[in-house]
Amino acid sequence: MTDALIIPAEAVRSWEYEADVAVVGAGGCGMVAALSAAELGAQVLLIDRDRKGACNTARSGGMIPAGGTRFQRAAGIAESPEDFALEILAKNGGQSPRDLAFALCRRAPELVHWLVDRPRVRLELVTDFKYPGHTEYRMHAPLERTGAALFAMLRDAVHREANIQVALGANGQGLVADRGAVGGVSVESGAAVEFVRARKVILALNGFGGNPPLVAQHIPEMAGVLYFGGEESTGEGIRWGQALGAATAFMDAYQAHASVAQPGGTLVSYAVIMQGGIQVNRLGRRFADETLGYSEHAVALARQPDRIAVEVFDQPIYDQALQFPDFRACVEQGVVKRATTVARLAGLFGLPAAELARTVESYNAANRTLAPDEVGRRPSGRPLSPPLYAVQVTAALIHTQGGLVVNQHAQVVTPDGSPIPNLYAGGGVAAGISGHGPAGYLSGNGLLTALGYGRIAGEHCARALARERS
Fold first, then answer.
1. What are the C-alpha distances in Å from 20 to residues 27, 369, 461?
2. What is the pTM of this model?
3. What's the pLDDT tens digit per position in 416-457?
4. Where does 322-444 have alpha helices with state H?
5. What are the C-alpha distances in Å from 419 to residues 61, 260, 430?
6. CATH of the domain at 46
7. Which of 68, 96, 434, 466 is the most buried (most CB within 10 A)?
8. Which residues form the domain of 72?
C-alpha cells in the first residue's frame, strides 16, 4: 500500500500493544461493540482521541427505536421488527438496502433487552408522543431522556468489564494491512506513533459533519449551517476504508434538526412540535409542514430569512415539554418567552403582529374544522390558546448518514460486495439506512445503526475469532 492512511504490516518495526479486537471510537457504537466482543471472551482495546465523551450518542436524545420488545408488550403494543423496518423503508422511499434495514430491526429488540439486562442501562418505553414517521410507541430511552445518561451508563459498563482496556487521548492515524487484510491500527500517543496489532478492527468513529470541506462537497445545502454534532466527526474512518478499497454510499445523507434555540444553543425537544406547536419565520408566516420530520424541515428553515424561526405553542405543550432536560434548560436560560396575547408575543420577537395573528388563527381554524392547514399539516384537533409561549430557533446539522458500505454482519465491503478481511464498521463511519438527503431520516435511525451495528460487529468478530482458534 502506498496511501499514507494504510501502513503495510512489514513496515511496522514493533507492536506496542496487542488485542484480539481493536475498536476505534469510544462513543455509543464503539462501547457496545467492545462490550459485545468482550462478553464472548475477546480481549478488546477501545481507543478514542476524545477524553470528554463529546460524541453524537452523548449529544443525542438517547432514544433507541425497536419494534417487538418486552416493554412494548407490557404496554399492550403488539408489533413486529418487520413492521418497524417497513416504516424505515417508507420514510426513505425504499432507497436504503432492504436487507440491512430488516437485519437491524430484527436485532433491535434483543439489543434493547441486552442493554437493560447486561450493561444495566436503565431504559423505559416512551409513550408520551410519537416522533415523525413512527406509527407506534417504540422509542426506548433512559429515564433522564438524554444521550448523556445513555453514554454515562455505557461507559460505566465498559470500565466494569475486565476484558476491555480503554485508551483515551489516543488518536487513530490509520490502518495496518497485509495484502488487503487488516491487522491493526496506528495510533498517535503524545508525539509518538505507536502500533496496535489486532486480529479484528472495528471502526466506530463518527461521520464527517464536523469537517466543513467534506460537508460542502457532499451536502452543499448544509454548508455554513450551524453544526450541532460531536466535535470529533471529521471523517477519518471513512477515508481509511476508502484507502483499502471499501465502497461508500449515501454520502449526501444526513440528519438535521429544525429546533436549536437561538440564543442559547440548546436543542429544543421536537415534542413541542409534535404536540401541536408551529413555526413561523421573521414575517410571522408558516413555511412548511413541521411534522413531516425535523430533518427535512431543517432544510426549509435554513432557507428562511437569517435561518431563524419562532416556535409558538401553548400551556399544555409547555407543561408536557418540561419532562425533557433540554427544554428545561431553555426555560432556565430565559429563551422561552410567555405572553397573554398574540400581539404581545409578536412584540417579544419583533414579528409583525397582524401577520402572526392571521397565522395562528388560520392554524386554529384548521384544527377546529379538522381540515389540513395552509401548509398541508394534518390537524391535531386542538387549537392553540393563551397564554402562548415561544422560542427562537435555527436549523442545524446533527450528523451525517453516509459512509462505508457494510453487510449484515457489519463487515466493510468492496464495491463487489466482498468483505475486507478483519474490518468492521458501525455508527457514523458506516453507510446508514436513511437513503439520500435529509428526508429519509426516521427518528432514531442514528442510534439504531450506531448501537445496532456495534452489537452485530462485536458479536460477529468475537465468534469469528473463536472459530479461527479452533
1. 20, 64, 9
2. 0.92
3. 999 999 999 999 999 999 999 999 999 999 999 999 999 999
4. 325-333, 342-349, 353-369
5. 33, 40, 14
6. 3.50.50.60
7. 434
8. 6-253+401-469
